[in-house]
Design a protein that fits this description.
single chain; alpha+beta; Alpha-Beta Plaits; 6 domains; 7-stranded mixed β-sheet; 27 helices; 49% helix; copper ion binding; P-type divalent copper transporter activity
Length: 783
Amino acid sequence: MSEPIVQKSANTEACPLKFDIGGMHCAACSSRIERVVGRMEGVEKISVNLATAKAEVWTSVGREEEVQQEVMDRVATLGFSATPSADDDASTEFAENKAKALKDSRNRLGRLIPMICFAVPLLIVSMGHMMGLSMPSWMDPHAAPRTFMLVQLFLSLPIVWLGRHFYVDGIRALLRKAPAMDSLVAVGTGAALIYSLVNTVLGLMGVNPVERAMNLYYESAAVLLTMIELGQFLEATAKRKAGDAMGALMSLTPETALRLDPANEALPPQEVTVASLKTGDHLLLRPGGRVPVDGEILTGKSAVDLSLLTGESIPVAVGPGDKLVAGSVNGEGSLTLRADAVGRNTRLARIIRLVREAQGSKAPIARLADRVSYYFVPAVMLYAVLAALAWLVFSSEPITTPLTVFVAVLVMACPCAMGLATPMSIMVGTGRGAQLGVLIKNGAALEQAGHINVLAVDKTGTLTTGKPVLTGVTMLDGANGLDENGLLALAAALEARSEHPLAQALIKAGQERNLPACRVEDVVVAPGMGIEGKVFCAETGRHVAVGNRAFMKEHGLDISESVSGKLAVLAEAGQTPLLLALGSGDEIRLAGILALADAIRPESSSVVARLQQMGVRVVMLTGDNERTARAVAAKVGVDEVAAGLLPAEKADYVRRLQEQGHVVGMVGDGINDAPALALANVGMAVGTGVDVSAEAGDIVLMRGGMEAVLTALALSRATMRNIRQNLFWAFGYNVLGLPVAAGLLHVFGGPMLSPMIAGTAMALSSVSVVTNALRLRFFKIES
């Protein structure tokens, strides 16, 4: 999660305590909780998210249980509730939250409909004569002022009763010296109601009844409550749509699966719930079925669609031995698979957890809104009092003008829009990213990615396919009678202990040639350089080293001019040459050159050009040799290349770029590139399909290649643009609206702002912010 608003010191050793917060209505509420709890002893930092109604509290190590209870008690004294978040399965929590949201919407609708039914006739009765509507004589304000007043009172009372939560919550917050949005509504509408009640009582007692009847504000209070309730209902409905991306991810896992009896798979499969599956279960996957678990195919061939997980539209051919992931869709073939990971341990479940954590995080840009919101409500109440007093003291206007100003100012001001501006955009943006195969881990990474001006990229797996193939073997003097297959068998056996893409190419080549398996001992890996060990083939043991030129020089080998020439020819052709050396005793000699080629991704050159058009400087950082790196760079349009780098040297290069004042993004595979990924302002780990284990990255690219990088940067910029729009309208609404509500137009002969219009504008401001954030659901890269 990003750095919270309230922070004393960084405590990275303890996991945060997580709470569900109840009773928050606006940004003033969340800011108040952050301020008060953040100053508690034992609390290192706190982050409260208004949109998700959750809080995370970092504590001093060893004081978790003690602080948890203290936080719950302190939040309760502020008028809110804090309950520890259960570490439930993500789908269970999502279902519960969805049910709560639906229940809340139904409750609001249940109040809203009768409020509207009473508000409409109240508005007609109170304002009809001003609009030229003729009133019956028994209710005419001039002919029957007492009846006129009583009808308005009786139409208002049900609305006030249905909207009583505004008064209960608002006055309670006011008494706790922590006023919130409901406090503004309660004081504003309460003032209008009390003023109207006083006039009604005096009118019924015969004190100028006609004049009293013409100075009632029942409709302002009652219609205002109705409009605010309507706005909150629309806001809640729009906020539910923000969880559509999470819902789509949840729906990828089927509810049931077909389990086979491993002792007799000829028996008909048994349909069971996915929750009951265990590791090791054998399952039948029918054509068109959705994969319920992560597992390995035992029998059958098919094609699997990963589009909803990674955005990759082309189905992948699979067969025995291949891995399947939960959420993917089987093609036309029937498969049996063994469950390797179930429930919370599947990759889909981990993706969902990442998205959920990101949606609950804050971006640094939220600090301004949170800081303003904390002081906003008290400032508005003071502003309303001063504006009303100014009209009362310095003008000859009737008493109704200061009252109108007081009510309009209070109901015009609402910090809800400010509080929702950032978290709603982050919620929708990170959800959309997950749908496009880009997992953004927190709001800080989302914000920072939009500021990247230098992008450092690894070559293999990013600009290239990451699936190199062996193109040839060149024999050298130190082969000692071995042929190509003999050298390849030694290299493949040794590289089986490595996870590098080049190693996989040698292993695959050995399998394709049906080379014998060899035993390996005493393996030593030099990241970014090579690998060595003792390899036994046919009971003959040899010391084998495979790696680049620098690795061989470390072993005291001189590269002759003829060998250097061969290496240069391969490198200029865009191939990666690996040197293989054999040793016996203390002597080690070069035995061969293994040439590997990694095809350039077809989209790399166009994406690099797009990034450069966006003002992003692209730099290639690779452990490959200079000539090969420059050959690939020239083909994709990258001008700046740093080759032959070890993992630590890549991190140093990133550090130097940062020292020059650049915001640096690093794209790598999360293994050799981990130091650079961790050091970069934003680390983007290529997840190789749906592997989300790259912990060093701030962003996980579930689709390899540069298209995913372009999606991440463009989505970040779109989300930050959306946040800035929301903040502009949230602040602009109050900056422009509050002076008008205070009577600025009336000073120059214009009309007074009706409290009903002010309340409607206030309600719609939050709706507009949420609706604008929802536009990110349709984000896509422009072609």
